[in-house]
Amino acid sequence: xxxxxxxxxxxxxxVIGSGFGGLxxxxxxxxxxxxxxxxxxxxxxxFQPLLYQVATGILSEGEIAPPTRxxxxxxxxxxxxxxxxxxxxxxARTVTSQVLGRETVTPYDSLIVAAGAAQSYFGNDRFAEFAxxxxxxxxxxxxxxxxxxxxxxxxxxxxxxxxxxxxxxxxVVGAGPTGVEMAGQIAELAQRTxxxxxxxxxxxxxxxxxxxxxxxxxxxxGAKLGAKAVDRLADLGxxxxxxxxxxxxxxxxxxxxxxxxxxxxxxxxxxxxxxxVQASPLAAILAEQTGAxxxxxxxxxxxxxxxxxxxxxxxxxxxxIDLDQLPGVAQTAIQSSRYAAKAIDRRVRGxxxxxxxxxxxxxxxxxxxxxxxxxxxxxxxxxxxxAWVLWLTIHLLYIAGFKSRVTALLHWAVSFIGRGRAERTTxxxxxxxxxxxxxxxxxxxxxxxxxxERPLQDRATG
Amino acid sequence: xxxxxxxxxxxxxxVIGSGFGGLxxxxxxxxxxxxxxxxxxxxxxxFQPLLYQVATGILSEGEIAPPTRxxxxxxxxxxxxxxxxxxxxxxARTVTSQVLGRETVTPYDSLIVAAGAAQSYFGNDRFAEFAxxxxxxxxxxxxxxxxxxxxxxxxxxxxxxxxxxxxxxxxVVGAGPTGVEMAGQIAELAQRTxxxxxxxxxxxxxxxxxxxxxxxxxxxxGAKLGAKAVDRLADLGxxxxxxxxxxxxxxxxxxxxxxxxxxxxxxxxxxxxxxxVQASPLAAILAEQTGAxxxxxxxxxxxxxxxxxxxxxxxxxxxxIDLDQLPGVAQTAIQSSRYAAKAIDRRVRGxxxxxxxxxxxxxxxxxxxxxxxxxxxxxxxxxxxxAWVLWLTIHLLYIAGFKSRVTALLHWAVSFIGRGRAERTTxxxxxxxxxxxxxxxxxxxxxxxxxxERPLQDRATG
Lengths: 462, 462
Known about the structure:
23 strands
């Protein structure tokens, strides 16, 4: 069943990661005279900007996470190996990856490190189990279980006459695009999608809070668009709480602290963390071997051509690099990995190196609600329906590029514009995030407020 | 946020389960002067006949498991409570359910028990972790992780030059409709969908075995259609092994025993159990309180009007009952629960009881491949394209009844007829079924055959 290893002495490129950087870098090498091995810890490419739609029941995981090998199936010079990279040896020129405790060592001639970033809790990693991040399919499905599970628990508690305000309060930490989109969609669920589904609770009374230590929402978009976003969020019923630093998170709520010293406790079972990112720990592994700098977010300092100091054969791209204050967006990963791929191709063909990497800002956009978005393209500032149409068009085009499945696109567009949320299904394991809860001492005691003896309805039988 | 409990003294019906029985029973009560409470351990209704399509990447979980409360949102006399029923007290007329360790007690005037059946390992429950069943969304996603994960592990092993036959062998135990459909779809994956995605393995060399102790596949369809199904399965590349009783299952394979005493060991990492069902343990709880009989599959003997002996207010329906050798199919659950609902409605309205329950056989069908199915309607026996068109039409109509989402239907039809398998995404947790493997002593040692030191490619660097 096996094909003998090739004896072709072609230049070997290893690409670490299957996100925007890993995938676009690999695709950019499709005509190069090289063998590419993509090593990634998931079997899929992830369209991260739509993760919040998986968490809120609009899309299925398959719709935003196509298999990396399917995307690359016709690229003959590329292969995909599943594995989490645990080490890079710059001297031996090998990448060590692990699956199920077993190691694979892959040698390279050129390396593109595109391992991205994880959620950062700014040193408070204990928050993670109570406030999952939004970085992976696992995160999104976990949050789907928590969000829909909170309404289920509230229905159970309210039917007993208990106070369920803490179950119907949702706090999103971080008012960047992901946080804004997430808060908007949870409000949409409570206000529209679920309003007829429950009997003991009124989902429209649910509170959705968007909390950030910064002074405005969507700081990257400037004050004017930030203010427009706040207005639109208020229309949706999202309460925006700015200048509020989260100082503690637990099972049942979180603590915020304001600049004037005021403290506030928010009772909320469901918390979502969208507040910061931390570069892959591979950046630190590379820094240690080269003496390259690491910034506070764990990003590594690279040369202007994206190579590692002293290692012209190693490129670092995307969210992992500390260079010219590049934004942590898909375009940075795509452009930098294409640059690296082109550099490798030129080297293999004996051509002169390219000029230093330059980021081309294609603009930024964030969607807030059905028909509402903000966009920034060069000096242009857009908001409302026009920005929304632009957002939808660009996302449709992008997804179409991978999938060419008209029906899936249609499904997405119709679900998103419509009020239906067809992808609300959670596993029995996920509902209420049982895994996370099982880890807590005392189980779920904190989530429900009264003893269990009282029957649901106190009416006499018969 | 709460609505005070109703003081309406209406007749209270509790329905246990949200499968075909629970859902159709509840819907049949929509015009009755009763309050219905559905207590179910999942938040969704499950269209079980298509579970295998979730496991093999055709459908997303949301497409076959819509939220029960959404389906019932406009039925004002129905409410849904999440909880696993742990006890029924026939004297006190209460149902006890549990969520996260906390109990809810719900009183009833009439009860419909539609808790269905779980996979049966015929007393060998230790097989379960190595050969998951096909009864829930959790099962299907677990199997999705194992099936696609096996190809990933094989690719890793083959790239090192290891023998990976055991990773590319898939054994489906049980040649009823579910087993036949599952084996056909895995063969379809190996033969078509995945054939261009790997580099070190040829997925078309994968073996798919369908094993059953019976003498034919699809016994309920008779010898002629059974033989046709075997032919069609052979065309797909499925090896059918009949008269083969599974006597042991472990991490790396299984043992079968033939009538002539011959034993055979099959080396296969991925095993799927579709061989038998066991009624919900609630049947035993009811039998204990009434002295009703229990058959070998744990089904309870009921009166001809589906009530429990001595308890005219308690109906048992669907897969849980031992009556007239009813087949364990959706139609049994639907028809028996509608009968029970009608009986309750008549009782509340003071009308005379119905005549005993009679099952109306609408026919059976099983799909084997794209464009191939077998069907049995009365005396009519169909196979091939005609049976397939019938199957597709009936399933489309059924799903449309719940969803009225044209795009989702279209998506399904196109995926299923086409070769694309868009829903292949697994969580990091699911890939290779890490949970199951973590439980094993010695971890995954049995899955991979050689030490880890050898690099992927042994070619000299640069």
